[in-house]
Amino acid sequence: xxxxxxxxxxxxxxxxxxxxxxxxxxxxxxxxxxxxxxxxxxxxxxxxxxxxxxxxxxxxxxxxxxxxxxxxxxxxxxxxxxxxxxxxxxxxxxxxxxxxxxxxxxxxxxxxxxxxxxxxxxxxxxxxxxxxxxxxxxxxxxxxxxxxxxxxxxxxxxxxxxxxxxxxxxxxxxxxxxxxxxxxxxxxxxxxxxxxxxxxxxxxxxxxxxxxxxxxxxxxxxxxxxxxxxxxxxxxxxxxxxxxxxxxxxxxxxxxxxxxxxxxxxxxxxxxxxxxxxxxxxxxxxxxxxxxxxxxxxxxxxxxxxxxxxxxxxxxxxxxxxxxxxxxxxxxxxxxxxxxxxxxxxxxxxxxxxxxxxxxxxxxxxxxxxxxxxxxxxxxxxxxxxxxxxxxxxxxxxxxxxxxxxxxxxxxxxxxxxxxxxxxxxxxxxxxxxxxxxxxxxxxxxxxxxxxxxxxxxxxxxxxxxxxxxxxxxxxxxxxxx
Length: 482
Ligand SMILES: *Cc1c(COP(=O)(O)O)cnc(C)c1O
What we know:
alpha/beta, seven-stranded mixed sheet, four-stranded antiparallel sheet, 16 helices, 13% strand, globular, binds pyridoxal-5'-phosphate
């Protein structure tokens, strides 16, 4: 107590009353609605002057408050526009997602009620909604009821969870001779996850891919057997159901056969491709996905959610539990029935956001059918764009036909040396992006630089794809044809 006796003073200024909350939400909502209305007419990217902007935002801890209206202006006028317009319909770079507003509303609700979903006892209902989401994902993949899983912040941590679980199940605590196999098209998060999981960097085997960018099975099998003969302990194959480069899907049934014969864990990185299992075409391309021991799915890609939602599913849920279960005196009793889950027992986190709600709300509001139709539209758009690119042959070469919704292409110049051709294609990419109606990115396929169109955003429709092809044709005309 201070001499003035002020310790009983009530400080309630952080507690908004109903009027203040409504005002806050209303102002925010107006800005969001305006932002979304403007998306189609906004540049696909605004990348100049990023460093100046970042440095101009540096400030000391504010001692006093600022009006919300002024902060919204700062955010929407200065902070948000700079960079890639990842929410817009022209974002065809990397792997888009879009960010469903329904999920933003779910986050608002979830954060407002601030329930604790790390342990079942603290929020049995909220935990069950998230368990339903995991169950639905299992159904989408084709997993049996004994599967388990959890929501992560993204695919990187889902891949990490898979490697930890495989390592724990097959190698226990002596894992330094364990080796991991993945194709040269595998996302770098796998290598990083393996390193974080304690796999020595020298034990990660990069297996070549074929002319459609799928892992070469004979090379994989030979390498596994050679390692075993040399005293290593092969334990994990990471396959791809939709590579980031070209959307390539490995021969999943053949991978599952091989993993079964060699008694290895098969993890499928389906961060990008997985939700296309909602569509008939996707199920055809990814036949065999359900035979994998574990699967990474990124709802913030092909389920269109805002960034910050990935997931890991494990076919035999007990294995996931054994790799993660832990109790503590300061926690409530854990559930030991089959049907109720304490997420802290099957995942690395304890306190965390209620991620289930942002998946649950959009799926409940619209039903899976709406997502299936949207994904079918993306497949159609990628196929349409590919047809248009073929029509530009021989000046254009389609380097990878879409297996899902990504197509890779480049300018072709017979006789041009490879370095010069790569430079020309980089200039081609810059010309397309300079029109600022679409934003594409490139990648290296072996030593060839290629451009890619990746259609995943729920806001991308036929009109934007037509703009994309117009801008490709215009950029072609600007570049020397020899
Ligand atoms: C995006 C992606 C990842 C990484 O996921 P994050 O959500 O960005 O952490 C891993 N694998 C593939 C195939 C991806 O497309």
